[in-house]
Design brief:
Number of strands: 11
Structural class: alpha/beta
Number of helices: 13
Largest sheet: 7 strands, mixed
Helix content: 40-55%
Shape: globular
Strand order of the largest sheet: 6-7-5-8-9-11-10
C-alpha cells in the first residue's frame, strides 16, 4: 500500500526520532512510504487533528501521488478519523491501529493470537459504538425507527460476547502459566526476562545466549510470543531465560492490558536484562519508556542488568561496569557478532549465585523467628 505519513510537532520530545520510528512501523506493517508531511501545532484540532488547511494539503498529495492510506503518528479520536477519511478520500490509520495491525501479523502462538484479537476488539468497540451514536440520538424517525438502534445493540452484544470469551481464554492461559511458574519456583530455578525497546536486539541476544533459533529481524515487534530456554552457567547451575515482546513509546494501553499474561513472565522474573540499542540517538529516552511500562505492569522493583547492545555500530569496546555489592550493573556487547557475550554470561551467573545464597539463608531466618515467637 502506498502511504503518506503525517506527524505533528507539539514541541515535546524528539520529533525527528518519532517520525523515524513511524517510518519503521509503517514499513513493518507492509506499507510503502511515498511521502512524509509534518506541521507544528500547540494542540490538536478537534475536528481534523491537523486543521482544515493542512488536511487540504494532504488531500492534494494523496490525489497527486495516488496514495492508498494516510498514517498518523498519534492517536486519533473516532470522530477525527471519520472526518479525515471524508476529507482525504482514503483510509486513515492512527498509531494505535498501526501497532495493532503489526501485532496481528506477527502473532503465531495461540496465546499471542488471542491477546491481539482481544486488544483489537477493545479498540474497535470504542469506534463502533461512537460511530452509531447519531442513531442512538435519533429516537426513531423515517428510516431510523428501530433497526438503527437494534443494530447498535446487536453489535454491542456480539462484541461484548466475543470479548468475554477471549478474556475467559486468557484467564485459562494465565492459570497454565501460573502452574508452570510454581513448578519452577519449587525447583528454585533462577529466572531471567529479556526486556527492552522494540528492535533493540533482544531476540538476537536471546539466540546468542541460548542457541534457541528464535525469530530475529531488523524490524519492529519481530517477537510477540514469549520463548523460554534453559541456560547452563557452570557453578551457578541452570537458569531459565525468556524473550519477551518489545516496548515502544506510547504503547497502547489495551495492548499492555491484553499482553499482561505474556508480560507476567517479566513480573515474576528474578532478574531483568534490559537491552538498549547503544547506536540509537534516542537510547536514553527509550530506556525511560521501557521503565515506564515496567512500572505500569508492576515489574519496576525487579533488579535490572543494563545491556548496551550493538556496540559494533556505536564504536564501543566490550566491557562491564560494577555497581553496589560487587554486582555487575552494565554490560557492553554485540549480540550479532558475539563480542562481550561471555561478560553477560558471567554477570547473570553472579546474580544467580547471590540469589541462591539469599534463598538458602531465608528459611533459617523464618525458623529463628518461629523459635523466638514460640
Amino acid at each position: 500500500m502506498r502511504a503518506v505519513l503525517i506527524g505533528v510537532d507539539f514541541g515535546k520530545g524528539d520529533f525527528s526520532a518519532g517520525l523515524e520510528e513511524l517510518t519503521l512501523l509503517a514499513k513493518s506493517a507492509g506499507a510503502q512510504v511515498i511521502t512524509t508531511m509534518t506541521c507544528k501545532r500547540s494542540s490538536p484540532d478537534a475536528a481534523l487533528f491537523i486543521g482544515s488547511g493542512k488536511a487540504d494539503e494532504v488531500a492534494h498529495a494523496v490525489a497527486d501521488e495516488k496514495l492508498d492510506i494516510a498514517i498518523f503518528d498519534h492517536a486519533l479520536s473516532p470522530a477525527q478519523q471519520r472526518n479525515l477519511e471524508r476529507n482525504l478520500k482514503v483510509r486513515v490509520v492512527d498509531r494505535t491501529s498501526l501497532i495493532l495491525d503489526i501485532f496481528a501479523q506477527r502473532a503465531h502462538s495461540h496465546e499471542g493470537k488471542v491477546q491481539v484479537e482481544l486488544a483489537q476488539l477493545q479498540h474497535l468497540a470504542t469506534r463502533l459504538i461512537r460511530g452509531w451514536t447519531h442513531l442512538e440520538r435519533q429516537k426513531g424517525g423515517i428510516g431510523l425507527r428501530g433497526p438503527g438502534e437494534t443494530q447498535l445493540e446487536t453489535d454491542r452484544r456480539l462484541l461484548g460476547d466475543r470479548v468475554k470469551a477471549l478474556k475467559a481464554k486468557m484467564e485459562k492461559l494465565h492459570k497454565q502459566r501460573e502452574t508452570q511458574r510454581r513448578s519452577r519456583g519449587r525447583s528454585k530455578t533462577f529466572t531471567v526476562s529479556i526486556v527492552g525497546y522494540t528492535n533493540a536486539g533482544k531476540s538476537t541476544l536471546f539466540n546468542s545466549l541460548t542457541k534457541a533459533g528464535a525469530y530475529a529481524a531488523d524490524q519492529l515487534f519481530a517477537t510477540l510470543d514469549t520463548t523460554s530456554r534453559r541456560l547452563y552457567l557452570g557453578e551457578a547451575g541452570s537458569v531459565v531465560i525468556s524473550d519477551t515482546v518489545g516496548f515502544i513509546r506510547d504503547l497502547p494501553h489495551q495492548l499492555v492490558a491484553a499482553f499482561r499474561a505474556t508480560l507476567e513472565e517479566t513480573i515474576h522474573a528474578d532478574l531483568l536484562i534490559h537491552v538498549v540499542d547503544a547506536s540509537s540517538p534516542a537510547r536514553l529516552e527509550q530506556i525511560e519508556q521501557v521503565n515506564e511500562v515496567l512500572k505500569e505492569i508492576g515489574a519496576d522493583h525487579i533488579p535490572q542488568l543494563l545491556v548496551w547492545n550493538k556496540i559494533d555500530l556505536a564504536a564501543l569496546e566490550p566491557s562491564s561496569e560494577m555497581g553496589e555489592y560487587d554486582k555487575i550493573e552494565r554490560v557492553f556487547l554485540s549480540a550479532r557478532t558475539g563480542v562481550g557475550i561471555d561478560l553477560l554470561r558471567d554477570a547473570i551467573a553472579k546474580h544467580a549465585q547471590l540469589e541462591a545464597l539469599k534463598r538458602v539463608s531465608a528459611p533459617l531466618e523464618i525458623e529463628n523467628d518461629d523459635i523466638r515467637f514460640n
